[in-house]
Write a structure and sequence with these properties.
The structure holds two protein chains of two kinds.
Chain A: H1 9-35, E1 38-39, E2 48-49, H2 53-59, H3 62-93, H4 100-112, H5 115-125, H6 131-138, H7 153-177, H8 182-191, H9 195-206, H10 208-223, H11 227-232, H12 244-254, H13 258-283
Antiparallel strand pairs in A: 1-2
Chain B: H1 2-31, H2 54-62, H3 65-96, H4 102-114, H5 117-130, H6 139-147, H7 154-165, H8 169-177, H9 182-193, H10 195-211, H11 214-219, H12 228-238, H13 243-263, H14 265-269
The chains are: A mainly alpha, B mainly alpha.
């Protein structure tokens, strides 16, 4: 094809997006790294270069380990549940039965509603004399402090994240299920395979890449949790629900310890980048081929 | 046998559907209970005994929810518009042109996918302050500050690039033979052909922007500039333990997005646009 555009045309097209990305992405990216080597803890108006001091301080901070532990809890509890339950639901919904659209709408509803309203709704369910404690009492179990007991609070928050994510991951699975060849299921029916065997031998192997994709996406989102915490617990009680993003927020915007906050941001950055790289290289390659 | 299996499937799906909407139902129920009814009653009642709209009237008068709604519309509308323009402009040369530095541009944009906003939000805030894009200067600057960090995304650029890649080259050739220059080709020939992708980008950008909480809660200082999520979170502080008002305000705040969702449902639940919303 003949070249119908001038030398400058491609750059002109890219310019507006490039400006935004440079100012609001690339400069902040490098500034985060730069700030992480600065000490603001004694004077917020005057930083001094402090090398790795912030990182060393972080490694000696028990709250940081608590925060990382909470993140690990999220990864261990929320991620497997979000990989399995939505898949199960997608399999159920991927059949010719009545009312499918309505089910999809209702299950997807939590995804589109603001996380703030979701968190408020759950805070109300979790109230001391709330409906969940009533249900526990009916079952002859004592009321628990869903958000006030350090033993349970993190799980109560994780429940909100799971509840809000199920519809989203179900739709990802549903799209993947559509690509499984129907003949394979027909073959299973002829062999007389039951529900479980049919899906273990046909569905699961076929959509393994999607299961892996869902796992990495939900891991990355687990590391970015903020709003649930901010609205429901502010990281308490006793830091039991503090996540890394919430801790960065607190250090940066409440304690104004910019260097310390940035060093934690760099740690977050490195962890998320590893997961994202796996994602892009292994599962979404087609989308990003030059 | 067949019937029995279907009953089992329906039962499971009904159960999950109820779990999905129950928190909202319970909020709705609380919002409709008058002061004559104990909202902590054991056993709890879903149907209000002392049915009233008074909480809605009360919260509507005490809190400027309409203002929050308009603010959210301005921010989400501006974010959508800029994303459509910037993503399609940037996606076009990446799909169709050969130029020096194309690989660098491509991988730089790809790199932005890997870095979460949460990790760079502090310098983004410092830059926004330096550029005076905050509500303490004036409202317009405040809105620009809310929008600009999300004015374009790698996701949008790659989505538009994919859309342009799918258009046959002959379309451009014909237009150029007819005397169009490169901008006319883009504007008059290519852009109308990628409308479905633009719609997907618009809808998912809108949902993301509408629910955004972290950034506005960092930059906003004036109550009159609050977007809905920030304003609704603020209800908790305003009405400390008046759950009737908090519930009523929360319910009002989700009505617009639910209408939007129902109107656009085919984009969300058709199974064609998966991965479009960022988790």
């Amino acid at each position: 094809m003949f070249k119908y555009y001038g030398k400058t045309a491609p750059y002109l097209f890219l310019l507006p997006a490039a400006l935004v990305l440079v100012v609001f992405f690339f400069i902040p990216f490098f500034q985060t790294i730069w700030l992480s080597f600065q000490d603001y803890s004694t004077n917020i108006y005057h930083a001094t270069f402090s090398g790795l001091k912030n990182y060393i301080d972080i490694l000696h901070n028990p709250i940081f380990y608590k925060v990382m532990w909470n993140t690990i809890l999220y990864l261990v509890v929320a991620v497997p549940i979000l990989a399995i339950i939505p898949l199960f639901l997608a399999i159920l919904i991927n059949q010719k039965i009545r009312g499918i659209t309505l089910y999809k709408i209702l299950i997807y509803l939590p995804v589109i509603v603001s996380i703030v309203v979701a968190a408020i709704a759950f805070k109300w369910l979790y109230a001391e004399q709330g409906i969940l404690n009533y249900i526990l009492n009916v079952l002859n179990i004592n009321s628990i402090g869903w958000l006030t007991d350090p033993k349970y609070a993190i799980y109560s928050v994780i429940i909100v994240t799971i509840w809000k994510g199920i519809g989203y991951y179900m739709m990802i699975y549903l799209a993947a299920l559509m690509s499984v060849p129907k003949e394979l299921y027909e073959a299973c029916d002829i062999d007389g395979a039951g529900f479980l065997r049919k899906h273990l031998t046909v569905t699961i192997p076929h959509i393994m890449p999607t299961i892996a994709l869902v796992t990495t996406i939900s891991s990355i989102s687990a590391m970015k949790i903020f709003a649930e915490i901010y609205v429901m617990t502010k990281g308490g009680p006793l830091n039991s629900t503090k996540t890394i993003v919430y801790y960065i927020y607190e250090k940066a915007f409440e304690n104004l310890d910019l260097g310390y906050a940035s060093a934690m941001a760099v740690i977050l950055l490195v962890i998320v980048m590893i997961f994202s790289l796996v994602n892009i290289c292994c599962f979404e390659r087609g989308k990003y081929q030059i | 046998m067949m019937k029995f299996k279907n009953i089992w499937i329906h039962a499971t799906l009904i159960f999950v559907s109820l779990l999905s909407i129950f928190p909202f139902i319970w909020l709705l129920s609380t919002s409709l209970k008058g002061s004559g009814e104990n909202i902590f009653a054991y056993p709890p009642t879903i149907i209000p005994q002392d049915f009233t709209f008074a909480n809605y009237v009360g919260v509507w008068h005490k809190v400027n929810l309409m203002r929050y709604f308009i603010n959210s519309m301005i921010v989400a509308g501006g974010t959508v518009l800029l994303n459509l323009i910037l993503s399609s402009l940037a996606g076009y040369p990446l799909a169709r042109m050969e130029f020096k530095g194309k690989k660098i541009a491509f991988f730089s944009i790809l790199a932005t996918i890997m870095v979460p906003f949460q990790a760079i939000m502090l310098p983004v805030y410092l830059i926004t302050l330096k550029l005076h894009l905050v509500d303490s200067v004036n409202d317009t600057m405040g809105f620009i500050g809310l929008i600009m960090p999300f004015a374009v995304s790698a996701f949008g650029i790659f989505l538009m690039r994919q859309a342009f890649l799918a258009i046959p080259r002959e379309m451009e050739e014909a237009a150029i033979v007819d005397g169009c220059n490169v901008f006319q080709v883009f504007w008059k020939v290519l852009l109308p052909m990628v409308k479905p992708s633009l719609a997907v980008l618009a809808i998912f950008t809108f949902i993301g922007s509408w629910g955004e909480f972290l950034w506005p809660s960092i930059v906003l200082t004036k109550e009159a500039m609050y977007t809905l999520p920030v304003g609704v979170n603020n209800l908790q502080g305003m009405f400390s333990s008046n759950w009737r008002f908090i519930a009523a305000g929360s319910i009002i705040s989700i009505i617009p997005i639910i209408i939007f969702f129902l109107a656009m449902q085919k984009y969300f639940i058709s199974g064609e646009n998966e991965g479009a919303v960022k988790g």
